[in-house]
Amino acid sequence: MSVALTDQDKLTLRTAAYGAVSLLAAAGAAGSPHKVATDGSLALASATGPVGHVLAEKPKGVNLDGKSVAAIADQVLPALTAAMSLLRKQDPAEADNFRGTVVVALEAAARTHQGEPSPPMAEMTRKIIKALDGADGADGAAVPQAGAGQDRPDLREAIETFVAAGFAGIQMRVHDERGEWVGSAGVRKLGEAAKPSPNGLFWVGSTTKTFVATLVLQLVADGTIKLDTPVADHLPELGLDKRITVRMLLQHTSGLYNYTGELDPEGTFVPGIPAVGKEWVDNRFHSYRPEELVRFALSKPARFEPGADQSYSNSNYTLAVLLIEKVTGRSYDEEMQRRILRPLGLRDTLVPGDSPEIPGPHAHGYYRYEDAGEWKVVDVSRQNLSLLVGAGDMISSTRDLHMFFSALLGGRLLPEPLLAAMRKPHGMLGYGLGLFVQDLGPDCGGRTIVHHNGGAPGGYGALMISTPDGSMTLTAGLTTGDADVDPAQEFPKALDRLIKDVFCGGQVG
Hints:
Layout: H1 7-27, H2 33-44, H3 49-55, H4 69-90, H5 92-112, H6 119-132, H7 153-164, E1 167-176, E2 179-186, E3 201-203, H8 208-222, H9 246-251, E4 261-263, E5 269-271, H10 277-283, H11 290-298, H12 314-328, H13 332-344, E6 366-371, E7 374-379, E8 395-397, H14 398-409, H15 416-422, E9 436-439, E10 448-451, E11 454-455, E12 460-466, E13 473-480, H16 487-503
């Protein structure tokens, strides 16, 4: 999509962005307001895309003539909402770019303040973020954006299909040529009537792998590591097969045993560390260390010779985390924040470490398991996913997953050759470097999608699906409840309908 802005529109954007920084500076006036404003404005000047060109004109035409914080707020906060609204009507991705730019500027400004931000600064930051998000709508109905401002019955029915199939709840966000649609269905918590918040947080499971692959490929782009270098060159202490390369980890062609379990030659699942059933429920707050998980995998026979086949293995991505930490000298969490989360303004996304908490509004997820012949259901909203370090441990929201995926596929995080390698399918899984690539076939006009969905060991699932260029995205969070159904059986059918509704114009073949 392209963005056509009038002079008044550009003034609105500049007033909103530079005004937000000025407002934060005014709120923290007891500190160093001039330096707060300067550092925030410098961060705004680093913006890219159409928004960057507008903000590069500096605060031209901006007249923040309020003589008090309240007067400035009366001018700036509505401008923030208006800026987001006018950008969403033309290009939702550029609206996210603007939002991320302002959030980064606020962080830069706040860092000027010594120690923790003062209560007035913290409260003003909250108000600015609320104003940025004011154009999004807050209920489960469609967001009246670039389409005709009407609901999308096809999408509404599609998410209801998940609830009918036995899921407790779903929250979903779609960005396409009609604009943005946000909705939810089901319940936030069993026994209550409230729907899940469409802006809630959730465990994203294996969607984490795309974030980790992006980190690794950024290190390749920097020249810190090479795709076809043996991993053992960087981690000699693990005794790895020297034929296993960085590319093989990201592509699931290393042959490493999957530490959460594997199928035996007869097709029977053989558990690894406790990751399913009662054993996982009883151990779901246990803390693991990445090296512990990798060494467990290495204690088992390899599935095949490195590069000879392809098999999905969480071990590959936990090993990738050890590689990231070794070559950067920083923790996985620090590197994720530094390279991806802060630059994109992904406020809802985090690497939780050992914490079992979802630190914000969220729907409750439940796990149904058998114990001594009796079926039981337990709330697993709290779980320690150090069990899946780098392979499935992150928390996010539909908004943040959209912002990340559209930025990644739009070329904002990786140079084109590495992005092309990421999107090139390989082997029987059709898996590139941290992404599945899927041809939807002639019934969908030959359209291709890229995706990495995920699921926590229990209670939660995530969808992150897009066209290869990031121009059309679908992101969602799902929760399981107490229904006597197998999500693994029902999920594919509901997902198939959803993909056809979003990416194929509802064609069912």
